[in-house]
Amino acid sequence: MLEAWQQAVENLERVLSERDFTTWIKPIRFSHIENDSVYLSVPTLFFKEWLEEHHLKSLVDALSKTAGENVSITFIIREHDAEAEQLQPEDLIIKGHEENEQIKDPSPESTFTPLNYKYTFELFVSGTGNQFAHAAAMAVANNPADTYNPLFIYGGVGLGKSHLLNAIGHTIRGTSPELNVCYCSAEKFMYEMVNALRQKRMEQFRNRFRNLDVLLIDDIQFISGKVGTQEEFFHTFNALYDMHKQIVITSDKFPREILDLEERLRSRFEWGLIADIQPPDLETKIAILNKKSQITGIKLPEDVVYFLAASDTRNIRELEGMLIRLGAYSSLQSVPISLDMARETLKDILGDRRKDITVELIQKVVAEHCGLKIADLKSSKRLKNLVQARQIAIWLCRDMTKASYPDIGARFGGKDHSTVIYAAKKIDQMIKDDLKLARFVDEIKNELLK
Ligand SMILES: Nc1ncnc2c1ncn2[C@@H]1O[C@H](COP(=O)(O)OP(=O)(O)OP(=O)(O)O)[C@@H](O)[C@H]1O
Question: Where's the AAA+ ATPase domain (predicted)?
Answer without folding.
Answer: 147-275
